[in-house]
Amino acid sequence: MKKTHDEVESQRTRQTSQPPQVINIQISIPTETDVLEEETEEEVNVESNQYSACVVCKHFHGEEYGGNFLVCGMHPYGWQDGNCPDYEE
After folding, report:
1. How far is 60 from 53, CA to CA, in rounded Å?
2. Which helix (H) or strand (E) segment is 44 a member of?
3. How far, in Å, CA of 17 to CA of 69, rounded?
4. CA nearest 75: which of 65, 62, 42?
5. Domain coordinates of the chain in residue numbers?
6. How far apart are CA 28 and CA 37, in angstroms?
7. Which residues neighbour 21 within 8 Å (Cβ) at sequence distance 6 or greater?
């Protein structure tokens, strides 16, 4: 059964006449300081034989983030041998 224009408008008015619901949402956004403190919280002991070439490289990072040790930006897990193509003093 097809509704008339007046019936549709009447139904729309009834649906929209109720006040909108108010929803209270609270979020917490970490500041840059919070993130930096968290990232540098754990110190990693680098074994001299595992990353010996990396430790003296200009690109060596040597920090742990969420349990993952970041050696450098070019090779996050380190280079396979002592001949890294990106090595710089």
Report:
1. 9
2. none
3. 58
4. 62
5. 26-72
6. 16
7. none
Q: Which letter does DSSP use for residue 41 in this model?
A: S
From the centroid of its chain, how far is CA 45? 25
- Picking from 40, 43, 71, the residue whose alpha carbon sits closest to that of residue 58 is 71
Nearest partner of 51 among 73, 88, 80, judged by Cα: 80
Predicted confidence (pLDDT) per residue in 5-39, tens digit: 777 777 776 665 667 778 888 887 877 666 555 54
Query: Would you give the distance in Å from CA 88 to the centre of its chain?
Result: 29
| Residue, of 87 and 19, whose pLDDT is higher | 87
Closest by CA position to 62, among listed 81, 82, 77: 77
The end-to-end CA distance of the chain, in Å, is 83
Q: Distance between CA 44 and CA 11 in Å, rounded?
A: 67
